[in-house]
TrEMBL record:
Occurrences of domain Protein SirB1 N-terminal (ranges): 37-183
InterPro entries: SirB1_N
Protein name (record): Protein SirB1 N-terminal domain-containing protein
Highest taxon, organism lineage: Bacteria
Family, as annotated: Belongs to the UPF0162 family.
Phylogenetic placement of the source organism: Bacteria, Pseudomonadati, Pseudomonadota, Gammaproteobacteria, Pseudomonadales
Length: 267
């Protein structure tokens, strides 16, 4: 079974094995990784975290869990330049530095093991967490509580003051949502660091994890362009056209396809 197949199979379990699935994504970029070993090592971290939690009902332990992880030096990466390893789960576990989403994946797995209710929230630009039914969200990087005003300010910083906070920004993320976001993060980071072959793996995985859309087909077309693969680029541009309703963009995509048609076939 390939790492991709193992990842997808994790999603078929009930409940989905999110953390293990994310490890199989990491295997695609590091074939020396053994997910079973990492899962076993996580038990040691679970004991460390559990030992530092207060004697409170499980529903009140989500924020203490995140604060405990911060005490154990799990922090958002502070290198200035975010690298692919900051989105690869096994590297984050070793270095204790990562993106908000990867830190959230660790927190969610520990919460599951400790029977602490906790959910992911697909907030733009910075993945967040929530306790079901709570009137606030939690930052996976240290556990700070975020109320509506905080979320609105955070959204303005990410997308500009013209964007209004809506329920769509606060939706709970299921396992597939989180793995797609992780894959998109990796796709972007691999491209930024001139690793288009690795980015192609991530771009393909995004399309397998959920319903394809315009942006994801365009993203893979751009990866194929970097790889000088006009056949793959053409395929995704044609699919993107099927989703596109904006006339200006349709014209751009059509012109790009015409330009590709002039590229001689390689035999």
């Amino acid at each position: 079974m390939s790492p991709r197949q193992a990842c997808l199979q994790c999603l078929q379990r009930e409940p989905p094995a999110l953390f293990e699935a994310a490890l199989w994504i990491a295997v695609e970029h590091d074939d020396s990784l053994q997910p079973t070993q990492v899962l076993s090592e996580l038990h040691s971290l679970q004991l460390q975290v559990s030992a530092g939690l207060p004697a409170l009902p499980a529903r009140e332990l989500a924020q203490p869990l995140l604060r405990r992880l911060a005490e154990l030096d799990f922090q958002e990466d502070d290198e200035g330049v975010t690298r692919p390893r900051h989105a690869l789960l096994h590297h984050v576990l070793r270095s204790r530095r990562g993106q908000p989403l990867t830190l959230a994946l660790i927190a969610l797995e520990l919460a599951r093991r400790l029977e602490i209710p906790l959910q992911g929230v697909n907030f733009p630009g910075h993945f967040l967490l929530r306790v079901p039914g709570a009137d606030h969200l939690l930052d996976p990087c240290g556990g700070r509580r975020l109320y509506t005003r905080d979320c609105r300010e955070h959204l303005y910083r990410q997308l500009g003051s013209g964007v209004e906070l809506s329920a769509a920004h606060l939706q709970t993320a299921d396992a597939s949502d989180m793995l797609r976001r992780l894959s998109r993060n990796l796709r972007l980071l691999h491209l930024q660091h001139d690793e288009p072959e690795a980015a192609l793996k991530d771009a393909e995985r995004v399309l397998q994890l959920g319903q394809p859309n315009l942006a994801d087909h365009l993203a893979r077309a751009d990866v194929y362009q970097r790889l000088d693969c006009p056949q793959g680029e053409r395929y995704d541009l044609e699919r993107a056209l099927l989703f596109c309703e904006e006339e200006g963009l349709r014209l751009q995509l059509s012109q790009r396809l015409r330009n590709l048609a002039r590229v001689p076939a390689v035999h």
